[in-house]
Amino acid sequence: MSDTPQTIEYRGNCHCGAFRFTFRTPPLEQAFICNCSICSRNGYMWAFPASEQDLAVVKGDENSTLRSYHFGKGMLTHKFCPTCGTSVMRRGADGKCAINIRTLADVDLYSLPVLTSDGAAIEPQYKAPAPVQVEAVPEGSTVYNGNCHCGAVGFALVAPEIITTASDCNCSICTRAGALWTYPQVTAMTFRGLDSLVEYTFASKSIYHGFCKNCGVAIRARFDQGEACTDMAVNVRNMNGLDLSALQIKKWDGKSMLPLYEV
User: Fold this and answer.
1) Domain-ending residue, one of 92, 121, 150
2) In total, how many domains does the chain have?
3) Which intervals hold domain CENP-V/GFA (predicted)?
4) Going by DSSP bridges, is the β-strand pair 114-117/31-34 parallel, antiparallel, or unpaired?
């Protein structure tokens, strides 16, 4: 009897489908989560192919379809789709890759046990860019500053109340982005660097998902639903100094909303 574990072929893709792949591995029984500055912003859930032969690109090209982003000592290269913003994978200096489980089809993310890594403690420490300035802050309000990882896009949210909750939507795009949303009034937001923001929309084309063109981090979702819509969604993962573990996470079943996602 063979001691070789049985493997399963998982299918994965960026949201727009420009990059598709298969990933063969023993059944996924856990996900690896890191709290470093880039992994926490993208909500990465990692799986590690045992060999390069376990990963097969079905559509697109890893080096031309996906955009590469690296920082710090340049030891890791993060790769995302420049059209839809999906962060698909990373490669180390040794060429070994890790796959973002969020991009895989038919995987119940919420049922996977997680193994955590304290990447935030690794030197050099991440330094956030200068905060976005706001002209006036009403008494009793709290200012939340945030930015994408590379700092090209920044924002300030003037919140009338302290943020204690965030929404975790399981739809096809939010799952891939790993976003945790809060919903401020548009007038409460001040942005910097919107020329570096790419917007992606699909299906009804009433929601525009914005991500940084340089690092791929999801920043916001802008609603185009008439004058009655006065709010927007902002990804709290990008807020500097906000303790995500202290937030009450509310689940939203966007996955079941019609039309169902197909790629």
Assistant:
1) 121
2) 2
3) 10-123, 144-253
4) parallel
